[in-house]
Amino acid sequence: MASRLLWASSAASYLRISVSHRGFASEEKIDIEEGCKDLLIEALPNHKHVESGNLVVEDFKYAESHEWVKVDGKTATVGITDHAQDHLGDVVYVELPEVGAAVIQGSGFGAVESVKATSDIYSPVSGDVVEVNEELNNSPGLVNSSPYEKGWIMKVEIKDDSELKNLKNSDEYAKFCEEEDAKH
Amino acid sequence: MRGGGLWQLGQSITRRLAQVDKKVAGRRYFASEAELKKTVLYDFHVANGGKMVPFAGWSMPIQYKDSIMESTVNCRQNGSLFDVSHMCGFSLKGKDCIPFLEKLVIADVAALAPGTGTLTVFTNEKGGAIDDSVITKVQNDHMYIVVNAGCRDKDLAHIEEHMKAFKAKGGDVSWHIHDERSLLALQGPLAASALQHLTKDDLNKLYFGEFRMTDINGAHCFITRTGYTGEDGFEISVPSENAVDLAKAILEKSEGKIRLTGLGARDSLRLEAGLCLYGNDMEQHITPVEAGLTWAIGKRRKAEGGFLGAEVILKQLAEGPKIRLVGFTSTGPPPRSHSEIQDEKGTNIGEITSGGFSPCLKKNIAMGYVKSGFHKAGTKAKIVVRGKAYDGVVTKKPFVPTKYYKSS
């Protein structure tokens, strides 16, 4: 019980306290970007804080496995959520898929490594990978500092729009995170 | 990411970190939070933002508000204070405690000067490691020993069994388990100056591996100049009722530079220092020779044997071990425990036992066992992570130079 409360309350302070020091891959560059994290967040359209202090973006869709997807016509941009990066801690490596690879909704397509843990990442949509965020090879910390923008992981040409209804909207996802945290 | 929540991920990390003897402690990992043991510093951890996770049956902080990356770097720049009260300290007493202990460990205990200690290994009949441990000769009739939390039950059972047999033959040995005490580890370049504020004893005269009983912050403490980070520092056994006050005093004396540090950073620090984690890098079937701890087998012990599994170990010393623990640096994702190691042609030559991203070196470091012949520094290898082979190279340990406080 104690640790549950702690986990949630520490999450809020996390964003403000640790993020500005997370640059390690190419420090000068990241420092600038990370120093701007608060600004970036404020600049995100329709963002809101969930109870834990983590952010969700209203127009994005979310998988229960903590990936987000931003749909723009046939193209879906995919990344991991603020909640996910916060729980993972300092991201040190992102294993990107290959351009041209086929991904399937709910199937693994890569991995995120933090100092202490490896987490598989699952595609929230099915389709072909058309672009990957090469920036993450040199600056994996972008996943922490800018999970919804500069920390995007891949872009997918969507095969089937109707799959999107299997995903949560921001309110549903925020509620899901709260319930998940509350279990512990 | 999938699964019943990332908090569980935290737990699985801890399980991986712990990797203690699963048969003994396995059940406890899944014990409900209420069943977990708490150190006397539990409330202090929570008040300081500690993220408490189950570890070897205890609720311990994996990190505080600082990230693991920040904590690791700060330990080497300034200092860290760890609560390691989950570890088990005990004393062996009696005029025969030294010959008794020599049956169980590889160290030349008789040759230790009073007030000095060493890292050693408790071995089984096959020469495998039951646990690694720091043992200290307080006096010729008093040994002070600290063993891993996750090995406590099996270690104590093992020692007790041998003690019964030893006493039955008339040997004079008894023990006292220091459950009335707590254990703090103070590590890093500011450790000595911070601690010096709290004791009249001259810490400049206490060198690496040395032990003293002394008053610290008004409490009767055992201090050993040792640690698990590669930095200078101390492990302080303090009466439990004085532990919180001592922790507060140390943090205060460092003016906030020494930070509370959790098990996450502790694991990064020991890996950077090339130190084994029992359960990962050393197990029941691994001998001290294979684990690179040949230096810890006393010269007299190499000649005489007389400890459990000595035949196996002395034979390995003569013939050379078939596998050896080595360090690696690598490209790609950080290797983790159980990643396969291949030679350049893709043939299996071993397995990683610990690995991760080094916060201080900003690159991947790992340790693992390879077949002898592939163990020399500079040997190129492949490390397989999620089905893909990445370039690795055998690298001398420690990865980060150690800074022990030695005379001369």
From TrEMBL, chain A:
GO terms for biological process: glycine decarboxylation via glycine cleavage system; protein lipoylation. It is found in: Mitochondrion. CDD domains: GCS_H. Binds 1 lipoyl cofactor covalently. Gene3D superfamilies: 2.40.50.100. Residues 75-157 form the Lipoyl-binding domain. Its main location: mitochondrion. The modification N6-lipoyllysine is found at residue 116. GO terms for cellular component: glycine cleavage complex; mitochondrion. Keywords: Lipoyl, Mitochondrion, Transit peptide. InterPro entries: 2-oxoA_DH_lipoyl-BS, Biotin_lipoyl, GCV_H, GCV_H/Fam206, GCV_H_sub, Single_hybrid_motif. It holds the Pfam family GCV_H. Its cofactor is (R)-lipoate. Belongs to the GcvH family. The glycine cleavage system is composed of four proteins: P, T, L and H. The H protein shuttles the methylamine group of glycine from the P protein to the T protein. This is Glycine cleavage system H protein. It comes from Salix dunnii.
Automatic annotation (TrEMBL), chain B:
It is an enzyme of class 2 (transferase). It catalyses: N(6)-[(R)-S(8)-aminomethyldihydrolipoyl]-L-lysyl-[protein] + (6S)-5,6,7,8-tetrahydrofolate = N(6)-[(R)-dihydrolipoyl]-L-lysyl-[protein] + (6R)-5,10-methylene-5,6,7,8-tetrahydrofolate + NH4(+). Substrate binds at residue 235. Transmembrane segments: none annotated. One of its GO terms (biological process) is glycine catabolic process. Pfam families: GCV_T (PF01571), GCV_T_C (PF08669). InterPro entries: GcvT, GcvT/YgfZ/DmdA, GcvT/YgfZ_C, GcvT_C, GCVT_N, TrmE/GcvT-like. The keyword Ribosomal protein does not apply. GO terms for molecular function: aminomethyltransferase activity; transaminase activity. Residues 41-299 form the GCVT N-terminal domain. GO terms for cellular component: glycine cleavage complex; mitochondrion. The glycine cleavage system catalyzes the degradation of glycine. The glycine cleavage system is composed of four proteins: P, T, L and H. This is Aminomethyltransferase.
